[in-house]
Structures are given as structure tokens and as C-alpha cells.
Predict the structure.
Amino acid sequence: MALAFNLPFFRSQDITKLSNFSIFYSILSGLVLTVAYAESDDLFTSDHAMYGSHKKVNGFPIIERLWFPLSSNCGLIFAAPEAITGSGRNCLIPLSEDQVRYYNKGIAYIATQYVLSKHPFSKSDIALIREARIEKAQEDALKQLNNQV
């Protein structure tokens, strides 16, 4: 918050920075923090470790969920309360194998160069990473094509 309010205190406030902070804070204020754990101990991380999903409302992206892996079996989820089924506010939940796969695929998709794991990658892990990277390459190519038109 200190950066948003432009420390030191005697410097004039930049309205743009305050507005950006207000927008960012208003988006996150409706989300709850949940700590999630995977019994499988095979969560990925990468050189770009935060993964998020969003939806568009009136043409603006609204964050639905942010995932940040902390270790090979633990991560933080910021999401709307209704998106975290079976949990209250700010709690600890287990991840199913499907959820581990979803978050691992998201981390592999968002990675700039490296996907990391505590354990050697299995064949299914490698297939998941390839699938995510192919989807990213296709989306990037589509964006470039749309920018040329």
C-alpha cells in the first residue's frame, strides 16, 4: 500500500497510481484466500509462477481465480467464495487429482521458459506440459494473426 500512496509522504500524489491501486484492490477485495494442499506432492512451479483465470464483463477482464504454488504440495488460491466449493473464507482445502492437473497445466501454460517440479517429470506430466505449451503457441499465433488484420 505504501507504494500506491507514493512514499515519501511529502511528495505529491499521482492520481493515476492511486486509481490503479483502487482498481486492483477492488478486484481482490471480493476474493477469499484459501490454502490448498495436494497429497500427491507433485505441484509444478515455473519462472512465471502465478496463474490466473478471468472472465469478461462488459469488455473488462474480471479475475475469477489466482493460483500461486508455494511448494510441491501447497499453494494459495485467491477466488470468489462461490468458486471454492465446500469451503468457507480463508481456510485449508485438499486438491483433487483433477485440480492438481488443472493448476499444473495452468502453470505450464503461463511459464516463460521453465516448468519446475520437486520430482522427475512422469510421462503424463510431460504430456500435460506439451499440451499446455501447444495451446499457448496456438493462442499466441492467433493473437498475432488478429493483430495483422
The chain has two domains: 1-30, 31-142. Strands lie at 32-37, 45-46, 51-57, 60-71, 74-79, 92-94, 115-116. The chain is about 35% helix and 25% strand. The two ends are 41 Å apart (CA to CA).
